[in-house]
Amino acid sequence: MTPAPAAANPSALPFADRLAAAVVAKKNAVLVGLDPRLASLPAGLQVAENAPWAEQAEAFRAFCRGVIDVVAPLVPAVKPQAAFFEQLGPAGMSALADAITYAREKGLLVILDGKRNDIGSTATAYAEGYLGRGPECAWGADALTVSPYLGDDSLTPFVDVSRQRGAGIFVLVKTSNPGGKTFQDLKVDGRPLYRHVADHVEAIARSTAGACGYGLAGAVVGATYPEQSVELRAAMPHTWFLVPGYGSQGATARDVAGAFDPRGLGAIVNNSRGIIFAHARREYERFGAARWQEAVEAATRDMIASLAAETPAGKLA
Amino acid sequence: MTPAPAAANPSALPFADRLAAAVVAKKNAVLVGLDPRLASLPAGLQVAENAPWAEQAEAFRAFCRGVIDVVAPLVPAVKPQAAFFEQLGPAGMSALADAITYAREKGLLVILDGKRNDIGSTATAYAEGYLGRGPECAWGADALTVSPYLGDDSLTPFVDVSRQRGAGIFVLVKTSNPGGKTFQDLKVDGRPLYRHVADHVEAIARSTAGACGYGLAGAVVGATYPEQSVELRAAMPHTWFLVPGYGSQGATARDVAGAFDPRGLGAIVNNSRGIIFAHARREYERFGAARWQEAVEAATRDMIASLAAETPAGKLA
Question: Do residues A272 and A34 make contact, with C-beta atoms less than 8 angstroms apart?
């Protein structure tokens, strides 16, 4: 099934359908992670480590805009990592707001990686603050990553607000880090905990599935566990996967193939450092720090090509 | 054992010892939650629901300062809830920064309730951004709540930064909401998941225990599950408990008694709405909205008295 094209007011459509439309339109499923780090910025944007927070935040703002300018025509979505902006205090939060707004203006979907979680009216505050593009939302992201430990009633406020606002969430299910196994792999009734979390997420996704076949609740499923990706893809047919771990964490295009459905939908594959700091990678050092944006473009195009060659995302081309 | 008195530079001491000293000095374990909500502000601080974010944030700033002015002489610590500030965008984050700084200036410990969590250098960014009182930290909280789903290596960066900076964390273990059971109570090898999380937290706490007997890793243990509090108190002898659920969520002083050690240490009991919006409670309506700070003081003193009467915290008096 081909997702419907975006309507006149695209933000009124369900997030899952907007994501599918963006992936189809851009013909790839690359999610560029905006993880600004002072020490890794290209030479021209560097500021001193002890520069005032506002100066560091201004460097982040300029850098993120520079990345967005390059990737906006190429990929469907970006994923700002809240932590790096938060590290700079309120000034950093202003840079985050700028990155979200600028990315949206450039036609990108924005998945904010904040791994927020709480209960009751507190979870509602996070959801209302971060999710949706209307004037009632201060941040205006299209989706937010969410941690599940607090349980089903902690997810409900995020689901309710997402439904009202055409937004979405990605719930941590099976993460890419080695320590993900500490609790996620503990066996409950013979199945690892992450499968129980997966069941909850899939139930939400199934009950909210839109035209593209996917619902508003997605799952974070690490690329570093290819077998679990395949297992979870089968168990979660209505759930978009946000796949971290590609590139810098060691996973290859082949490792993420199982996260896609046969149409080439169902997964977006994140790459942060490997794209935004491509100028520091040996493969792209020919560009030098001054032409860092060309390195970003080359790395993005190379990742698109790898996914097309090695995964069902090739069907999008 | 009596905790050592605060040194000349109190922020250089381990967080657990600073918390113990503050509880002993104030003779109670009340943790006042700073959960500003526009609709609940006293009449004199109200702004329109559709007022600009900066105006709403200014109301939060004034309200939090007003609460802190009242409770600083009475209690050891406050707990700003990040979500309510984040809901107002970058302007709200400035109000949060102000609340943290103002509370510290008034001699309070600040436990930021952000339930942050991530992996690797991203977790480090959260830890370095929020934890510690030095110029290298943009926010300057003494402790931060943390979610454990991502596993042991996701906790390590928070532990490392806490150790370096005399800060602390409170890891979600058994939360106060009804849905906390969804995953936390699932049985792994015959014991609920939260007991496995508790083991990890206690191991960190034991290995970092200071003069007061507690370590830098605390646990969030909901007051709404008194039996589990008793069970966890026994299983986690080196772990400070942050106890939510008192008051508005239905738990009484008697329900939280089991979270304390026999000295009256080991637990801090949070109350948010029941204190900061006391002017709206029938018991304190005699003060009226204009004298809302007197209602805050009365509610704080009443909670201190209840805990002293019904729990080992009475030994602190």
Answer: yes
According to CATH, the topology of domain B19-316 is: TIM Barrel (3.20.20)
pLDDT tens by residue, A155-196: 999 999 999 999 999 999 999 999 999 999 999 999 999 999
Residue of A nearest to B122 (CA): A83
Chain B residue numbers touching A180 (CB-CB < 8 A): 150-151
Clarify whether A115 is annotated catalytic.
yes
How many of the other CB atoms lie within 10 Å of CB of B185?
A: 15
Measure the CA dihedral B299/B71/B229/B147, to 10°: 130
Global model pTM greater than 0.90: yes
The encoded tokens of residue A141 equal 């992201």
- The answer to whether the CB of A75 falls within 8 A of the CB of A303 is no
Q: 3-class SS at A300?
A: helix
Contact B186 A187 (CB under 8 A): no
CB–CB of A126 and B87 under 8 A?
Answer: yes
Selected catalytic residue, list A115, A174, A181, A315: A115
Helix %, strand %, coil % of chain B (to 5)? 50, 15, 30
CATH code for the structural domain at A17-316? 3.20.20.70
ipTM of the complex, rounded to two decimals: 0.96
Q: Hey, where are the domains in chain A?
A: 17-316
CA A96 – CA A144 distance, rounded (Å): 14
Query: Considering B115, B174, B181, B315, which one is annotated as catalytic?
Result: B115
Nearest to A217 by CA among A10, A19, A7, A9: A19
